[in-house]
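Feature request, filed as a ticket because there's no other form

It would be nice if the structure record came with a short human-readable summary line next to the tokens. Right now we just get the raw output. Example of a typical job, pasted below so the devs can see what we mean:
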Amino acid sequence: MKITIIGANSYIARNFIWYVQNNIDSDTEMKLYDFQENHVDGLDCYERVDYSDKDNIRKIDFNSDMIYIFAGKTGSVQGFEQYETFVEINELILLKIIEAYRLNNGTGRLIFPSTRLVYKGRDGLLKEDAEKEFKTIYAINKYSCENYLWMYNNMYGIPYTVFRICLPYGTLVPEASSYGTAEFFMKKATAGENITLYGDGKQRRTITYMEDLCEALYKGGSSKETLNGIYNIGGEDYSLYEMAELIAKKYNVNVELIEWPREARLTESGSTVFDSSKLDEVTGLKYSHKFKDWIS
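Raw output as currently delivered:
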């Protein structure tokens, strides 16, 4: 088996590479690409690619079994201030990759990680066809990319799978951590500082430990049954307050509820808890890691 990873220096990509190296057949070949000169973890199967150069992108190996596209830029309010950058990195680069795939007569499946932010938040479980709402440039970037993949499949038969991720946490690779919610809480608490939450912290999330997330991306990406579909990745259901409270108790600090800043309030999605049964039924995923264990 051969796997191509684009955006190989990103947080999720680095963890996914570790997962493949430590859990999948040793004969699996990986081809890694990103815009930096070297791979941050020093892997030799890495090649620099210039995402701004259409011809340079064509050197990517599109004949792998799976082609994971982790290249992208996250952010909420920042997207309004840097809209050109967000559209360039999150949409135009994907279109350049797809077009390079087409021109190179690629054969692998394009696998794209999307986000919870495409959903209109509400109480209860969200299936993949739940109502959509876009409060940030990043959210509409991701939804546009989902639709680009469908369009190119419809026009040219290019195979793809989309996985929507809610709130990942933890890391399998030292120094490869995110600036996500759980890590923000942990950083504050381990420094002896109180954890601050906007509002009442009652909004809920599906939280997924990194190893479970990587397993879902691999098993889902290699399953014939997920071809040309969109899938939620599951995990545990927590409110932000419940997450903060568990960490605060562990490190003997408090949770402080503060007033919403205007911009944060207007871009907050509300509760997003995934119904992942569509993916779980075809992959047998169990999501074995628990948030309480990560804290301890």
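Something like this underneath would help us a lot:
The chain has a mean pLDDT of 96.
The radius of gyration is 19 Å.
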